[in-house]
Amino acid sequence: MSFLAKLFLNGSVLNVLDTNIQFYQGLDPATYRPEILPQGGIFALTVEADGNTDLLGLTISPDTMCKGYIRFYKRDGMSKLTDYEFFDTYIVSYQREFTAFNGRPATDYLTFSPGILRIGDMVFEKWWKVTDLANMEAARNMPVEEEKRPKMLGYHYENEEGTVLENNELKIGQVISLVLKTEDGIGKTVSLDLSDNNRDFEYKGKRLDGDILKGIPIKSSPQKFKLKVVSPWKT
């Protein structure tokens, strides 16, 4: 049993004071068996008015559909009991009522005509519905591929002729290439610590702050970055 219900629609949450829903089937007068497909699914709502005109706007826009759900709560007022989910829905009736004498809040009376109504495992659809629930659920349940973090596999220095240089072979004033190898790094940025007590480096004419080559974009692997070897700061 539920003692609390709320309407969730277009980012708003409204207290539901009353709601009812009806389904019906036409009967064959000879056999008293159903002779047509089930009809109905239209439901009426009474909600506390919140002062905005979103519901009125939806009512007077004959081509505008909305979606949302009514959530019914258990006795504790916190745990969900069930949801009435509606998709491709027209609001076909709107009435606002306010009476200053009975202490009741202003209330909106609404009638919803959903193209799709889902209550638990039951789905009731109209022929004019737009949403494909099966595709929507499939897209929602598709595993999201975790973005791979770039891995730095290593780096070395080369002179302008392409000869690999050891750290102790770097000379002040020399222009060199830092050759960086990465994995899963293309299109991303990385930072590289080039700390060296005997020398500093310039990149694009600027001395590296703390010997950190920051935020360099990876376009290939391996990739070369031009550096200039400079004297370390004197302390």
Can you characterise this structure?
The chain has 2 helices and 15 strands. The protein is mainly beta and 235 residues long. It folds into 2 domains: 5-141, Hcp1-like (Pnp Oxidase, Chain A, Roll), CATH 2.30.110.20; 151-230, no CATH class. Strands 1-2-3-6-5-4 form a 6-stranded antiparallel beta barrel. It has a 6-stranded antiparallel β-sheet with strand order 9-8-10-15-12-13, with no helix packed on it.
Q: Please, what is the average pLDDT? A: 86
CATH class category name of the largest domain: Mainly Beta
Number-wise, the strands total 15
Strand order of the largest sheet: 1-2-3-6-5-4
What structural class do the secondary elements suggest? mainly beta
User: Looking at CATH, which topology of the largest domain would you report?
Assistant: Pnp Oxidase, Chain A
Can you tell me the number of structural domains?
A: 2
Strand content: over 45%
Total of helices: 2
Spans where pLDDT lies below 50 across 5 or more residues: none
Radius of gyration: 34 Å
* CA-based shape: elongated
User: Based on the structure, what is the oligomeric state of the protein chains?
Assistant: single chain
Q: What is the fourth-level CATH superfamily of the largest domain?
A: Hcp1-like
Order of helices and strands: EEEHEEEEHEEEEEEEE
Q: Percent of residues in helical segments?
A: under 10%
N-to-C span: 77 Å
CATH architecture of the largest domain: Roll
Biggest sheet, in brief?
6 strands, antiparallel, barrel
Please name the defining characteristics of this protein.
mainly beta; Hcp_Tssd; 6-stranded antiparallel sheet; 6-stranded antiparallel barrel; 235 residues; 15 strands; Pnp Oxidase, Chain A; 2 helices
